[in-house]
């Protein structure tokens, strides 16, 4: 998501390099590129307009601060405004909880948006955060949907409500009673979806809302459907006063316009983002971090949070220290590959690393998921000393390693090239100039 936007924005920033100050003229020029970038990313015209206006006003008004150059100042303004338009600072806790349990979370959305999957993701997320959720199948029109929810619940390690009733309101109310009896503190209702907006469905959802008094009503929006997702989010909000949005399929080939526009157009915040079919492909939405990611600053915080969940904490700490000291070795790279396979898709992780936006293509050609196993085999065929010091790898050793792991020598060379690039990128993180930029962006 947002790759083109990121690329275009960094081009717009470049046009300001070498300028001595921000003026109406050079701001206009940079904004022309930004406007193109936004429209190409399928951002709602109205949102793009409001955004550009605010950036322009702010950029013209900025004082020359702490020795930042015009390009950096402009990035700072764009960063602030990107964050603001996507909803500003995310609240400490993503969901409100009812004063008296169970808290009812009602999931609504069109068919195929990923609602059932998201119920499972949310249940797993809540369980990890100390809650005991109950999943409730209230989509009585598709028997497959009910079965699917039971499967998802099992996957997530949470209970699901079973009943013979085929009446959505009755099912939800009975589930709430069972939650009180058994001490489940959150009840997640998987409601029916249709292919299109539909009054009968809306009335059914309104009846469930009246009967169950949900604390949260989350609209599940398929990011791939772009502006349609924004329109549906608006329609559901109008009818049901939804309290938030979960944006799914952010891993797909989407241009990101929905993520950008939903808050501004519907007034409801994106609370979570789904980025894959697995239950762990789910994270909170932080506008500020997303803005950093769009601007190619990566999203180190989300990566660290994700890593904390899946990776051995000691390993992660050791890695972080090595990064800070710029001691990244082939041994670390091998560990990373092993961890990466635990964490999910390589591309996703690369996208979260700062400075990787531009490097992503090069890396994709070397380290797509299916090739990681080959790379790991190469690294495994090296001696520990070689993994600690890549300079030991001469032509003779490379041939031996190639024979040992059954991969051609040029793959070994590619891997080394990649390693050196990663090392260089990481050393940039230690560069005072980079840190300054990072601090500037964090305001
Ligand atoms: P529902 O009809 O709204 O309940 O949608 P489902 O939960 O059945 O999901 C529809 C399809 O989208 C399924 O194939 C899911 O695996 C897939 N899906 C759901 N969320 C995501 C996501 O975040 N990323 C991707 N790539 N696929 C997803």
UniProtKB/TrEMBL annotation:
<dbReference type="InterPro" id="IPR000897">
    <property type="entry name" value="SRP54_GTPase_dom"/>
</dbReference>
<feature type="binding site">
    <location>
        <begin position="248"/>
        <end position="251"/>
    </location>
    <ligand>
        <name>GTP</name>
    </ligand>
</feature>
<dbReference type="InterPro" id="IPR036891">
    <property type="entry name" value="Signal_recog_part_SRP54_M_sf"/>
</dbReference>
<dbReference type="GO" id="GO:0006614">
    <property type="term" value="P:SRP-dependent cotranslational protein targeting to membrane"/>
</dbReference>
<dbReference type="InterPro" id="IPR003593">
    <property type="entry name" value="AAA+_ATPase"/>
</dbReference>
<dbReference type="InterPro" id="IPR013822">
    <property type="entry name" value="Signal_recog_particl_SRP54_hlx"/>
</dbReference>
<dbReference type="InterPro" id="IPR027417">
    <property type="entry name" value="P-loop_NTPase"/>
</dbReference>
<dbReference type="Pfam" id="PF02978">
    <property type="entry name" value="SRP_SPB"/>
</dbReference>
<dbReference type="GO" id="GO:0008312">
    <property type="term" value="F:7S RNA binding"/>
</dbReference>
<protein>
    <recommendedName>
        <fullName>Signal recognition particle protein</fullName>
        <ecNumber>3.6.5.4</ecNumber>
    </recommendedName>
</protein>
<feature type="domain" description="AAA+ ATPase">
    <location>
        <begin position="101"/>
        <end position="277"/>
    </location>
</feature>
<feature type="binding site">
    <location>
        <begin position="190"/>
        <end position="194"/>
    </location>
    <ligand>
        <name>GTP</name>
    </ligand>
</feature>
<keyword id="KW-0547">Nucleotide-binding</keyword>
<comment type="similarity">
    <text>Belongs to the GTP-binding SRP family. SRP54 subfamily.</text>
</comment>
<dbReference type="InterPro" id="IPR004125">
    <property type="entry name" value="Signal_recog_particle_SRP54_M"/>
</dbReference>
<dbReference type="Pfam" id="PF00448">
    <property type="entry name" value="SRP54"/>
</dbReference>
<dbReference type="GO" id="GO:0003924">
    <property type="term" value="F:GTPase activity"/>
</dbReference>
<keyword id="KW-0342">GTP-binding</keyword>
<feature type="domain" description="SRP54-type proteins GTP-binding">
    <location>
        <begin position="102"/>
        <end position="296"/>
    </location>
</feature>
<keyword id="KW-0963">Cytoplasm</keyword>
<dbReference type="InterPro" id="IPR004780">
    <property type="entry name" value="SRP"/>
</dbReference>
<keyword id="KW-0733">Signal recognition particle</keyword>
<dbReference type="InterPro" id="IPR022941">
    <property type="entry name" value="SRP54"/>
</dbReference>
<dbReference type="GO" id="GO:0048500">
    <property type="term" value="C:signal recognition particle"/>
</dbReference>
<keyword id="KW-0378">Hydrolase</keyword>
<dbReference type="InterPro" id="IPR042101">
    <property type="entry name" value="SRP54_N_sf"/>
</dbReference>
<comment type="function">
    <text>Involved in targeting and insertion of nascent membrane proteins into the cytoplasmic membrane. Binds to the hydrophobic signal sequence of the ribosome-nascent chain (RNC) as it emerges from the ribosomes. The SRP-RNC complex is then targeted to the cytoplasmic membrane where it interacts with the SRP receptor FtsY.</text>
</comment>
<feature type="binding site">
    <location>
        <begin position="109"/>
        <end position="116"/>
    </location>
    <ligand>
        <name>GTP</name>
    </ligand>
</feature>
<keyword id="KW-0694">RNA-binding</keyword>
<keyword id="KW-0687">Ribonucleoprotein</keyword>
<dbReference type="GO" id="GO:0005525">
    <property type="term" value="F:GTP binding"/>
</dbReference>
<dbReference type="Pfam" id="PF02881">
    <property type="entry name" value="SRP54_N"/>
</dbReference>
<comment type="subunit">
    <text>Part of the signal recognition particle protein translocation system, which is composed of SRP and FtsY.</text>
</comment>
<feature type="domain" description="Signal recognition particle SRP54 helical bundle">
    <location>
        <begin position="1"/>
        <end position="86"/>
    </location>
</feature>
